[in-house]
Amino acid sequence: MQSLLCYVIAGWSGFFVMAVELLGGRLLAPTFGSSIYVWGAIITVFMLALSLGYLAGGRWSTHAPSVARLGAILIVAAATVLPLILFAEPMLDAVSIAVPDPRFGSLLGSAVLFFVPTFFSGMVSPYAVRLLVQDRSSSGRHAGQLYFVSTFGSAAGTLLTSFYLVLLMELNHILLALLTISGLIGATALLVGRTGDAGAGAAAATREAGAGQAPRAHMSGEVDDGRAGARNETGALHAP
Amino acid sequence: MHHRWQARCAGVILALLAGAAYPGSLRQLHAERSLYREVLVYENDGVRCMCFTRQCRIGRQSCMDVKHPDRIVMNYPQMMLASLYVNPSPRSVLIVGLGGGTIPRTLLQLLPDAHIDVVEIDPAVVKVAKKYFRFEDGARLRVFEMDGRVYVRRAIRERRKYDLIMLDAFDHEYIPEHLLTREFIAEVKSLLSPQGVLAANTFSSSRLYDHESVTYAAVFPHFFNLKRENRVIIASNGALPDAEQIRQRSEGLESAFARYGFKASAVLPLFSLEQDWDRDARQLTDQYSPANLLNTRE
Questions:
Q1: Can you tell me the distance from the alpha carbon of B179 to that of B198, in angstroms, rounded to the nearest whole number?
Q2: In this complex, is the C-beta atom of A176 within 8 Å of any C-beta atom belonging to chain B?
C-alpha cells in the first residue's frame, strides 16, 4: 500500500507540475505577452526549481523518511500554488513595473509565482525513491519505475491540460481542482503513513535509522495485505 | 489572417497559372526562420506576398502590386480602412500587427497630420516589410518590436490615447489568445480617445465566431460587423454614426481611395449592425481563452 502510494504521489506530482507550467504561460501572457522569452523564462524557473527540489528532497529523505512526510510535501507544494490563484495579477503587474525589461521581468515574475511550488514538487521523486528502494540490487529498477510514473504523469498533465482542460474550465478552476486532488492524495498518505506506523508498532526514527533493514520488514507487511498491484515489490522485498 | 481567402486566392492563382495570358509563376524571393515562424516572400505576376507557411496560396499575410505599390491587393485592408467612415480624421493611430505594412503605409499617406504607432512582435517581419514591401518608419510612423498586449498595457500606464486602433495580429492558423479576451478588448477601449474607433480583423467562420462576437459585445455593446472572407469589427468609444453619415464620409473618401485601387462605396453595403451570433456563447477571458481550440471546430 505504501509503495503504491509512493508511485501515485510521484505520478500525480508529475501531472501537477506540467499542468501548472502550462497554465503559467496563460497567467503571464496578459502582463508579459506570449513572446518566446516568456516561455523561456517559465521553463527556466521550473527546471531550476525542480533541480534544487531534487537536491533538497534527497537530503531530507535521510532523516526519518515516511510516506506521511511524502504526502506532506505534496500538500505543501499544492498550498504554495494558492497565492497564484489569489494574487497572480497584482503580483505580475508589480513585477512588470519594477522590471520593465520583458525578458527579466517575465523571469522574475515566473520565479515569484512558480519557484516555491515547483521546488517542493521536485522534492517528491528522490524522496519517493528512498521509500521504495530496499536494497542495492533493486534500486535501479525502482528508480526506473518511479521515473516512468512521474514522467508519464507529466505527459498526461501536459496533454490533458492543453487539449481539454482549458476548453472546459477557467484557469483558476483548473488550479483549484489540481490543488484539491493534491490535498486528497496528500491526506491519504498522511493517514496511511500514520496507521502504518502504528501497525508496525515501532518508533519510526529507530526503524528508519536501520538503513533499509527494518523498513523492509515493514514494507513486506504492507504487501502481504494482499495488493495484487504490489507483486513487484513482493519479489524485491524478499530478495536480500 | 485572411484564411477565408483561401478558396478565392487559390482559385485566382490557379487560374493565373493555368491561363496562357498570364504566363507568370510563383517565385520565392525570400525565406527565413524567425523566432516565431517562417517568413516567406513569394512573387507571382507582379504581385508580391508575405506568407508564414509554405502553402502561400492559402495563407497570404500581405500582398503588394510591385508596379503599383499603392494599389491595395487584398480585401481585408479595404475593410479595415473603412473605419475612417466612422472617424474620418484620426490624429493618432495604433496598429497591432504589421505584416507587409499595407495599412500603415496607406494611412500615412491618407492622414498627413497623423502619428502612427505600429506594434509587431516579430523583428523578422519588420525587416522583411522594409526590404520587400516598401515599408519605412520615420518621425510620423514608429515601430515597436514587442508583444501587442505588453505595449497596450504600457501605453495605458503612460496615459496615451489613440483616435484609431487597429488589431491585425491574427494568423490564419494561430491566434495569440491573450489578444482575444474581454480584458484585452477593455484595455484597448481604455486606450481610445472619447470618439476613438477600434477596427479588428478577425474571423467569420468556425465556432470561434460566436465566442469572439459575445466577447467584443461585452465591451462594445454595438459594433459594425463587416463580413467577406475575413470579418472586420468596427466599434467606437462614442456613439456609432448612422447609415447616412457613413455614406457621406465614404463619399468624402472616394477620390482619396481611388489611388489605392478600390471604391469607397464598395465597402459601404458591408456595414451591418445585425447580431447574427449565438448570444449564449461563452465569453473569452484571461481565465478562459481557448481561441485556437475553438477555431478548429466548425
A1: 14
A2: no
